[in-house]
Amino acid sequence: MKRLAEARAALASARGVVILTGAGVSAESGVPTFRDSSEGLWSRYRPEELATPQAFRRDPRLVWEWYDHRRRAISRCEPNPGHRAIARFLVERPDAVLVTQNVDGLHHRALEMETAMLTGERDGSPEGTPGMDHAAARILTLHGDIMRVRCQGCSYTQIDRSPVDTSSADSLPRCPECDDLLRPAVVWFGEMLPEQALTRAFESAQDAEICVVAGTSAVVHPAASVPTATLSGGGDLIEVNPVETPLTPRARWRFPERSGELLPRLFEV
Questions:
Q1: Which uninterrupted H or E stretch holds 151?
Q2: Which residues are tagged catalytic?
Q3: How far is CA 129 from CA 52, 54, 88, 126, 199, in A?
Q4: pLDDT of 193
């Protein structure tokens, strides 16, 4: 309890906080991992055979069928207390930035839920909730969002959680602006991470006095280097993970607990 109180006090006084989340946070909501999505019918495929631009050009119906399978599985999951604690912290702390490796969209759904709750608590006045308008812009999805679609041919992009009709190539979703095929707005093998989000992530981490790392193995780069940027700038690291990672020896505060149990206590504002 003393260590938790110390970490909470450090967060309260910190100028700038960066939060990095990985698959462990969403696993607590029942979200299947990237490779766990390849069970049953999909067991004969490797994810690397489906999550590439080449696969989409070769057989967009097959790729969309797999992603629709994953999207439906994710849609049955709900943000857990860890997601919601982060969302509320983002609303209350305009100097906080979330960097996530997850593509399931649960951080955004948690923000929607917390926004609705906080608006109700403040007599239905969104203007009375500090930072609400800007919280979503401070969620940086390094690997994209599986619930978002984007056009191959133009800049159109949109959140769309509805099921995809994969019965034929003609039924696949098309861009309302140019009629080209829409694709999942995720980063596929062979593609670069979004430059703007990556730059903002490292700039925010460099300026932050505290970096909270939750549910990530800290081995997939460049995301795993985000906490290092905070450390190199003189900041401190809080790690929340039942399993030790390469960051563990560098963490000032380490909590070997599930994020859904620890984060609501850590981010109490």
A1: strand 144-151
A2: 143
A3: 41, 45, 11, 6, 28
A4: 94
Please give the average per-residue pLDDT across 152-181, as a whole number: 95
The answer as to CATH 3.40.50.1220 being correct for domain 2-31+79-143+192-266 is yes
CATH code of 52-76+146-186, in short, is 3.30.1600.10
Half-sphere exposure of 86 (CA within 13 A, CB side): 33
Rounded to 5°, angle at Cα 30 from 266 and 106:
60
For residue 149 the two structure tokens come to 């679609």
pLDDT at residue 124 in the model:
47
By DSSP bridging, strand 157-159 and strand 144-151 are antiparallel
Q: Phi, psi (5° rounding) for residue 242? A: -65, -20
d(CA 214, CA 24): 7
Pair 233, 223: CB distance under 8 Å = no
227-242 pLDDT, tens digit each: 999 999 999 999 999 9
Give the DSSP letter of residue 20.
Answer: E
Domain ranges of the chain: 2-31+79-143+192-266, 52-76+146-186
Q: Given the structure tokens 């703007």, which residue do they identify?
A: 196
